[in-house]
# Entry
Amino acid sequence: MRRRHLLQAGALCAWSAFEPVARAESYPSKSVQIVVPFPPGGTNDLLARVMAQSLGERMPGNFVIDNRAGGAAGSVGAQAVAAAKPDGYTLLLGNTASLAINQSVYPNLRYDPQRDFEPISVVGGSSLVLVVNSKVPARNVAEFVQLLRSSPGQYSYASAGAGSPLHLAGELFKYRTGAEMLHVPYRGTAPAYTDLLSGRISAMFDNTTTAVQHARAGTIRALAVTGARRSALFPQVPTLAEEGFKDIEVLVWFGLVAPKSTDAAIISRLSRAVATIAKGDETRRRLLEFDIDPWGSTPEEMRRFMASESAKWKAVVQRSNIRLE
# Structure
């Protein structure tokens, strides 16, 4: 009798160890929703559609996009995924704001990126570009910083909203350079550009894909990009580090996460798929069209990166006393 019980217990343990692997091998057996916490048409949405198509070609299931815009810098969609069933069939394609900034900016945020998600992979990242109105008398970053220092209170910079990566990039720039600029938040980049082009606003940190059309028209001047490497859309524009400002690196990055407690085997399978896709020539070509450098990290690499980014932006938010409801 005892021997039979031991055999049954052993069989149960063997099945318990096998079951997660079996689930992962059959995953996905139905459609997987990738929640994009922004409206259709933006960079987050376009990137998610590229990844959904590539994952669907590589894995047996169908990956569909679920746009859940609702304000608060992507918090509404992120919160929905944090509360979803942890079965691998609801994922979030988040970004710097929803996965690293929002918890410091919004005191009543109803999710914690590091506590409520299982990281899958950082999909890619993109620089911002510092642009000024073409009439601003500065041809490079050093001249712009000197202009700001010598004329405190006379220059302003726009952003697509308080607490956004574009806003915090400006605050980090001010802190690291000792320069002064007045922040003017707008509801998106379109109205910000109206005032930037007219000269009512002096400068802005913006996504390269949006800024490039204005730069090519000659209505704004690009002074530097914020990443470690030059942008494919601005190959002649130096990085801030090349200009002598080595501690102002800013990336807008995009990451895929699942609800907390999602099976580790499913997380691993998705992570390997994303890494393979990110290294593929076709995906790389399509992402570089959006000026996104494909990464494809492991879950643990993403966990460490999220923690580092969260700490970095928390310090900026606290120093600038930014709090939103």
Remarks:
- The two ends are 65 Å apart (CA to CA).
- The domain at 30-125+253-320 is CATH 3.40.190.150 (D-Maltodextrin-Binding Protein; domain 2).
- The beta strands are 32-36, 63-67, 90-95, 117-133, 156-159, 182-185, 203-207, 220-225, 251-259, 293-294.
- DSSP finds twelve helices and ten strands in the chain.
